[in-house]
Design a protein that fits this description.
This protein is mainly beta. About 5% of the residues lie in helices and about 40% in strands. A hairpin with a 5-residue loop joins strand 1 (about 5) and strand 2.
Length: about 80
């Protein structure tokens, strides 16, 4: 059972390792992407006057376009044979 101790800033600790479940497989995955530069577009009203936007902490300057992916499934045969 996980215990929360307020004195230790409410960190969770798993103490009953014997109750852990084995994981029979793990999937590792990865995407590759092409970075495309994004042009900043100015927003204008119907009169052609530039509308100022509030300052943002995040600036979009690139767009990720996925071009390929890969994944591999790794089996733990010991765990499977014990089922």
């Amino acid at each position: 059972m996980a215990k929360i101790n307020k004195a230790e800033k409410a960190k969770t600790k798993f103490s009953q390792i014997k109750n852990q479940l084995d994981c029979p497989f793990v999937v590792y995955a990865d995407f590759e992407s092409i970075l495309k530069t994004v042009k900043k577009e100015e927003k204008k009203d119907e009169n052609g006057v530039v509308i100022s936007e509030p300052e943002k902490n995040t600036v979009c300057y690139q767009e990720h376009n996925a071009c390929s992916y890969s994944f591999v499934v790794v089996l733990d045969l010991k765990s499977i044979n014990s089922l």
